[in-house]
């Protein structure tokens, strides 16, 4: 799977973006964060980067990331590679405060 690929994970669930580097084998699990409509919540500065996916505005819930089973990833619906810097910055702020 591609770095920063976005997937559906089931009916009624938000799409998720895979955060981990694809060259690292973590077995049956991947680290992912949910995307939710930008209008659904107040953003957390830096931690919830605003992205566009297929013409819709989303916030990436970096603070809500979790390890999920790779088999839960259904259809790839896009990529956030263009937003890689903002996502890396959010991860750095969450883990290191920088």
Concise summary:
The protein is an alpha+beta fold and 98 residues long. It has one helix spanning 84-96; strands at 5-7, 16-18, 29-37, 50-53, 56-60, 66-69, 76-79.
Question: From N to C, what is the helix and strand string?
Answer: EEEEEEEH
Shape: globular
Question: What percent strand?
Answer: 25-35%
- Estimated structural class: alpha+beta
Instruction: Calculate the terminal CA-CA distance, rounded to whole Å.
Output: 29 Å
The largest sheet, given as strand count, sense and whether it forms a barrel, is: 7 strands, antiparallel
- What's the CATH topology label? SH3 type barrels
What features would you describe in this structure?
- The protein is α+β, with helices and mostly antiparallel strands and 98 residues long.
- It has a single domain, classed as SH3 type barrels (Roll).
- 13% of the residues lie in helices and 33% in strands.
- It has 1 helix and 7 strands, in the order E-E-E-E-E-E-E-H.
- It has one helix at 84-96; strands at residues 5-7, 16-18, 29-37, 50-53, 56-60, 66-69, 76-79.
- Strands 1, 2, 3, 4, 5, 6 and 7 form a 7-stranded antiparallel β-sheet that branches.
- A hairpin with an 8-residue loop joins strand 1 and strand 2.
- The longest helix is centred in the C-terminal third of the chain and has 13 residues, at 84-96.
- The chain is globular.
């Amino acid at each position: 799977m591609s770095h920063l690929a976005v997937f559906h994970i089931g009916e009624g669930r938000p799409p998720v973006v895979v955060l981990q580097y694809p060259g690292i084998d973590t077995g049956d699990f991947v680290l992912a964060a949910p995307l939710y409509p930008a209008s659904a919540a107040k953003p957390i500065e830096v931690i919830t980067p605003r992205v566009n996916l297929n013409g819709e505005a989303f916030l990436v819930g970096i603070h809500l990331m979790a390890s999920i089973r790779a088999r839960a990833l259904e259809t790839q619906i896009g990529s956030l590679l263009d937003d890689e810097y903002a996502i890396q910055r959010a991860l750095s702020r969450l883990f290191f405060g920088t």
